[in-house]
Amino acid sequence: MPSPVVAPDQPSVIAGYALAIARALEHNGVDARRVLRAVGLTEAVSNDPLQRLASSQVTTLYRACVEVTHDPYFGLTVGRFIHVSNIHAVGYALMASRTLLDFCLRLERYFAIVSQSAAVRVERNAQEVALRFGHQTNLCGETEDAFTTFLLRFMRLLYRQDFSPLHVELHHACPSEGPKPYTQAFGVAPTFGHDESALIFTAAAMEDPLSGACAELAQYNDEIATEYLAKLDHADVTARVRAKIIKMLPAGDCTRRKLAQDLCMSQATLQLKLAQRGTSFQDLLGETRRELALGYLAQRSLSVTEITFLLGFTDTSNFARAFKRWTGTSPTLYRAKLLRRDAAD
Questions:
Q1: End-to-end CA distance of the chain
Q2: CA–CA gap between residue 143 and residue 162 (Å, rounded)
Q3: Strands 128-135, 118-124: pairing kind
């Protein structure tokens, strides 16, 4: 494995992203290796999920790309060449999502794996769902264009080719050449100069089931992504606790004492660190169990009894009570609703 090219305290991007940039350069008739070599990135261009690029390096690379291609819309081109595999388990988990809302919530949870340059949040009401990106570094416009294009391409692949958002809000200014390529790529004319980037959709479309949904695949890649997130930011005690909870639940011994021991800290230290993050062991245990339960119930091969023990409950009645507290319904009724919806499709 090549050595990391980014310091631990720098915002970073998954290195596989550079492969898409290289493919876009080749598409434009440019020797990608020459451009990458000029900015010192040749050794970093791989799909190794543990390899990262500093966000500042990506900005430098994009400046070189725009200069050599003379294309102010180069980021839009890159968005056409980002492949699911370039973003590791996050891409495969997104592909297996049950709905586009599920897709957005999963992206919110794991976006730090893709990039630490922005924080993603999902906002929703009865009419709209907004996927917002709060920029935490000086993000270049090409990266904003590339990921916006990629996400819309990905959503259309999973849902409908004619699917478009209600609105697209971009942080960067509109190129002097005009917005037409954006309208062609997004299916709607974006607005520019916003504090954040945002994709805004009709709420109804976000709840439609996706034909490629696979609960087992989503669950599997969620677990990989959770572990990766914990490795990526070892100091993030929340991610580390979530990863430990997932591993410990099936054994039925997921206690704060045991978890603190596994993390090589006292219970008091664990409690303090989680409190500083605005959460607690019990909160994370409940949230993780809920997320896993929803995924397991979508897997027809698992009985409610099996799910009970996979989640570390001692009996089905305890699981049923917890599930009703989380969702307002029972595990059996929730599964029946999923089956009816699948049959209708």
A1: 45
A2: 24
A3: antiparallel
By the 8 A CB rule, do 76 and 145 touch? yes
Taking only the tens place, the pLDDT of each residue in 273-311 is 899 888 999 999 999 999 889 888 888 888 999 999 999
Does residue 22 share a domain with residue 105?
no
Query: Do residues 141 and 172 lie in contact, with contact meaning Cβ atoms separated by under 8 Å?
Result: yes
Could you tell me if residue 2 is inside a domain? no
136 phi, psi to nearest 5 deg: -105, -5
**Per the domain annotation, does 227 fall within a domain?**
no
Question: Does a structural domain hold residue 222?
Answer: no
What tokens appear for 256 in the block?
């704060």
| 168 in any annotated domain | yes
* pTM for this predicted structure: 0.76
Within 114-238, strands assigned E span 118-124, 128-135, 167-169, 197-202
What are 47-67's pLDDT values in tens digits? 887 788 888 889 999 999 999
Phi-psi region of 30 (alpha: psi -120 to 50; beta: other; left: phi over 0): beta
Q: Can you tell me the distance from the alpha carbon of 287 to that of 310, in angstroms, rounded to the nearest whole number?
A: 15
Q: Do 111 and 77 reside in the same domain of the chain?
A: no
CA dihedral 191, 195, 199, 204 (to 10 degrees): -110
Task: Give the per-residue SS3 of 30-97.
Answer: CCHHHHHHHCCCHHHCCCCCCCEEEHHHHHHHHHHHHHHHCCCCHHHHHHCCCCHHHHHHHHHHHHCC
CA–CA distance, 150 with 169 (Å, rounded to integer): 15
Interatomic CA distance for residues 1 and 309, integer angstroms? 38
Residue 227 contacts residue 243 (beta carbons within 8 Å): yes
Strand partners, 135: 118
Look up the domain containing 169 and give its range.
Answer: 99-206
Phi and psi at residue 134, to the nearest 5°: -90, 115
In this structure, the strands spanning 167-169 and 52-54 are unpaired
Q: What is the pLDDT of residue 104?
A: 96
Domain count, the chain: 3
